[in-house]
Amino acid sequence: MNRHCKILVAAAALLSLPACANEAQDARPAADTGYDAALAEELGADEYGMRQYIFAMLKTGPKDAEITDPDERSKLFAGHFSNMGVMAEAGQLVLAGPVSGENGERGIFVLNVASVDEAKALMQNDPTIAAGIFTVDFMDYYGSAALMKINEIHGKIQKTTIE
Fold it and tell me: CA-CA distance, 34 to 32, in Å (whole number)?
């Protein structure tokens, strides 16, 4: 993992939820699981404990191979990680991390924003995207509202800060 990364890489498998709970044909109340209505409301959960996000896939951009100066790349990536920190602090970046894609995929963001247009506006602040190191594909994502707690929990388990 890049030493500048300040955001937790979280696996969706952390939450073993049905893939399409919003389309469940056989909906019924959950077993007594300690449902917390106040927490569900705080996290914006629907009746299935899910909510809408925007998923962003960062891919290798057209200028990645051209920007080879180590100092320039270091500056661009410092800005990239700084922007991620700003979005996380604002509650807009739910989780992020690198991926080992074989088709140019480089990383993911799950964004707590209302629309793809809002997500695109946030990405304009990322210098690696502006420079063409990355491009971004966006799509709607329906996932557990519990993802909203990842950054809070990560702060409690992170022993060393990555600068």
Answer: 6
Residue 38 inside a domain? The answer is no
Q: Indicate the pTM of the whole model.
A: 0.78
- Alpha carbon 65 to chain centroid distance? 25
Which pLDDT does position 40 carry in this prediction?
97
Q: How far is the CA of 122 from the CAs of 6, 43, 101, 107, in angstroms?
A: 18, 21, 23, 16
Could you give the strand order of the β-sheet that contains 134-144, starting from the edge strand earlier in sequence? 93-98, 105-111, 50-60, 134-144
Question: Does 51 reside within a domain?
Answer: no
Report residue 65: phi and psi, to 5°: -70, -20
Within a domain: 42 = no
Which residues, at least 6 apart from 18, have a Cβ–Cβ distance to it below 8 Å? 24
Do residues 9 and 97 touch, judged by C-beta distance below 8 A? yes
Residue-range definition of the domain harbouring residue 102: 1-8+68-163
Q: What is the pLDDT of residue 157?
A: 94
